[in-house]
Design goal:
Blueprint: H1 2-27, H2 29-36, H3 39-60, H4 63-69, H5 74-98, H6 100-107, H7 114-139, H8 143-167, H9 172-199, H10 205-215, H11 218-230, H12 232-239, H13 242-252, H14 256-276, H15 282-313, E1 315-316, E2 319-320, H16 333-348, H17 350-355, H18 360-384, H19 386-408, H20 418-432, H21 443-465, H22 468-481
Antiparallel strand pairs: 1-2
């Protein structure tokens, strides 16, 4: 058993690190885009990639999950998954390419951007075709190869973006051309090892129908989950304009720091609670995890909310990291960061429903979040603009967290320490509200107040919330990691 758990931990670490590395590499494109694309062009790109995220669910239609479910029949299942996805991809991509200008006008990006719709169709098809092949690597426990291919693809994408936009002056088209090349490159890398099996397919219609019956119910949940993440861009485009979407997208992506923390927690949390679910002390342990998550996430969100404006305005090689044309949206960054905190609470509350095998509530939560997000966007954007879109996302994650807690407490009750949880989140949120007064306070005083809030006030309050055994444990940990004299050098 220990050998199996060790293998699980090793693969989880590899997948997690590769995901973080890929997202950070993609994030490096943000400063580049803000300096070489006007907000309107960046808004067109953001809106189209939001549509791509939705259509990815339809192009792939859960077939990667179905293939993993039938991996024991690999010789028949892999061709069924690959050629099934290929048939759907050709049909959908062909439909998109038939009238690209009309689709571009319908999407709100203008009929003159029809070529970008064609590019999007090619990206969707290439990504969909590679999905069952990447799933095959995962099921074969080739975590290192999987991760290296993913990271290599992102590196190629970043390099091509820089070359096409700066070197060839391709503008927003360069973003899509770079993505086509990197998607096709990834497809070729995973297709070549499987070519022998796919060249002589043992296609089973019966097996394909079984896989399809497993895969299709996953589509609504996937669409709901994706709606929570990206539906705000198309709605904002419809209610405002491309420039607003571009500014919103740039500042929304600054929340990547909190998003990565939550993603890394998610990677570790699921195996953690599954492995310990049968122990008598597990409910109290899970409750304590929520408390400590609230402490850490609230402090980090407070720190990022206060200092991200300084980071984006910091001059590197004579230029600010983010172009001043995008600074108008900095006020929405704290809202996005706190939205990710509630996403983390939602992930905490997944434990009871997964342990009880009542995962249907997860689909209900994502559909609820999607509905709230859509409604809140239409209600808040006309009055508050892009800030309303950020609050809509916050509302959806908060409601999903609340729903998941209510759904799971009857299946696997945990003695959550609500007093300490609400105190930590409330204190962090209250201190974060100080960003509204940044323009009314002198620069030196504002810096001193922020440093005091982040490194004195909130830590002191958190220390007050800790129990005596927790304080002793923390002090013991600090003594172990602190260098002791010359011998530690």
């Amino acid at each position: 058993m220990f050998k199996d758990l060790k293998a699980l931990g090793r693969e989880s670490l590899i997948y997690g690190l590769s995901t973080v590395a890929a997202r950070l590499l993609n994030f490096l494109l943000l400063p580049f885009y803000t300096h070489y694309l006007c907000p309107a062009d960046y808004g067109v790109s953001a809106a189209l990639f939001s549509y791509i995220a939705f259509f990815n669910i339809l192009f792939q239609h859960g077939m990667d999950q179905a293939y993993m479910r039938h991996y024991g029949e690999r010789k028949h299942a892999l061709p069924a998954a690959f050629y099934g996805v290929a048939a759907v991809s050709v049909a959908l991509a062909g439909a998109m390419c038939f009238a690209p200008s009309a689709l571009a006008r319908l999407a709100g990006i203008g009929a003159g951007n029809g070529r970008l719709v064609v590019y999007s169709a090619l990206i969707l098809a290439a990504d969909a075709l590679s999905t069952p092949l990447f799933a095959d690597l995962r099921m074969a426990h080739k975590a290192l190869r999987y991760s290296m291919l993913r990271v290599l693809t992102v590196v190629l994408n970043v390099g091509l973006n820089i070359f096409l936009i700066i070197g060839l002056g391709r503008g927003v088209q360069g973003i899509f051309e770079a993505n086509i090349c990197s998607s096709v490159f990834a497809l070729l890398l995973v297709l070549i090892p499987a070519a022998g099996l796919l060249a002589k397919p043992r296609f089973s219609g019966k097996l394909y129908r079984e896989m399809l019956s497993f895969a299709l119910p996953l589509v609504p949940a996937g669409l709901g989950s994706m709606a929570v993440q990206v539906i705000d861009r198309p709605i904002l485009l419809h209610l405002a304009d491309e420039t607003t979407v571009g500014i919103y997208q740039a500042n929304y992506r600054l929340g990547i720091f909190m998003m990565l923390i939550v993603s890394m927690f998610d990677q570790a949390w699921r195996p953690f609670f599954i492995e310990r679910s049968g122990r008598p002390e597990a409910p109290a342990l899970f409750a304590r995890v929520l408390t400590f998550f609230s402490f850490g996430a609230s402090w980090l969100t407070l720190a990022l909310s206060f200092f991200i404006p300084d980071i984006v305005k910091f001059h590197l090689f004579g230029k600010p990291i983010i172009h001043p044309a995008y600074w108008a949206g900095l006020g929405l960054v704290p809202v996005v960061l706190w939205a990710y905190v509630f996403n983390g609470l939602y992930i905490n509350f997944l434990a009871p429903v997964i342990i009880a095998k009542r995962t249907g509530y997860m689909m209900a939560a994502t559909l609820l979040g999607a509905g709230i997000n859509v409604g809140a966007n239409f209600m808040l954007i006309p009055r508050f603009g892009m800030l309303g879109a950020a609050w809509a996302t916050f509302s959806s994650y908060a409601c999903m967290a609340g729903f998941m807690h209510l759904a799971g407490r009857d299946f696997y009750p945990a003695p959550y320490e609500w007093g300490r949880v609400f105190a930590a989140i409330g204190a962090g949120a209250l201190l974060t509200c100080g960003v509204m007064f940044s323009g009314l306070i002198g620069r030196g005083s504002w810096l001193g107040l922020r440093l005091a809030a982040v490194f004195v006030v909130f830590p002191a309050f958190t220390w007050w919330l800790l129990t005596e055994p927790e304080k002793d444990g923390l002090l013991s940990l600090l003594r172990r990691v602190k260098p002791s004299g010359p011998a530690a050098v």
